[in-house]
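Hey Z.,

So I finally got round to the nicotinamide-adenine-dinucleotide thing we talked about over coffee. Here's the setup:
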Amino acid sequence: MAKIRVGVNGYGTIGKRVASAVAAQEDMELVGVTKTRPNFEALSALRKGYDLYVPDESVEAFGKAGVKIAGTLKDMLSKVDIVVDCTPGNVGEYYRDMYKAAGVKAIFQGGEDHSLTGISFNSTANYSESWGAQLSRVVSCNTTGLLRTLNPIDKAFKIKDAYVTIVRRAADPGDSKNGPINGLEPSVSLPTHHGPDVQSIMPWLSISTMAIKASTTLMHVHTVVAELEAEATTEEVIEVLKKASRVRLVRSKDGIKTTAQIMELARDLGRDRSDMYEIVVWEDGIKVVGNTLYYYQAVHQESDVIPENIDCIRSMCKAEKDSAESVAKTDAALGISKS
Ligand code: NAD
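And the result:
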């Protein structure tokens, strides 16, 4: 079977990771990536051997800077089956129309609203909904994190209500513009958009969310309280999460007390860019009291959505019918395992 030809529009935090992940798949070919400016990231892409494409209005700037391009964004679109749009949030509508005109399928990211595509994606919760679709959207890092744990818990014990507080990283590590760099900033528009975003994939789930921005760049942390319909013990919940796809249990008593040690573990695992694709749950922080379940989880915002983008490509391009098969292929290529 011919490889799926993939282009990546926007080579920032998410785009560069999607590009490497596509290049690592046996059934996909990375046709190229786009950059708007000839900065160090454009040179990094060239160094990796990726073809660079640019919007029409950037051709001159790349020429002046002497940075080699393979063509324009439109040229890239003429060579791909699917484009993964990794541009910043809220420019999606403009690009959606361009992709439509070029007749290519497109995946958007969580910075865009569900209404842009009408379909949102998570690998285990709703893989088949994007089957053959022209457009889909991989939900945000926080929403992906919540789906990875709430979906298997709901399947096992049926969640009556979930209450989540999201402690958000203020900026990504490569970002020096955002903040706060001192203090904690609550989101005062309540409940936050994260609950409805989870419902774009699990519409039956009753979930309420709040969020606080914190002066850290490493990861988000979620505190989750879930009222369960079925009886459950702490040990049974641990077993469900141990088996859950792309969820990694760690223990505070083994020295992983903070997100800093989680990222140190990610470095020890030796993966591309030291990414932690899994949602990390503190095993000794899981507790059931009566019908109420409590746990903490950490989300590596730069990377947890990357395997989801790869599975979404397979679903939209009808390359693998079985979600578990696609997840297994993606995980093998990215080095994600339970050990
Ligand atoms: P980013 O700012 O790191 O990268 C965006 C890239 O798009 C950059 O290469 C930039 O040069 C380019 N760009 C800027 N304006 C453009 C335009 N008008 N047209 C084409 N390209 C343009 O952003 P990011 O963090 O990678 O986020 C991309 C998407 O992924 C957003 O929807 C975001 O909400 C979502 N997302 C981000 C994270 C995260 O933590 N960074 C996590 C999950 C999802």
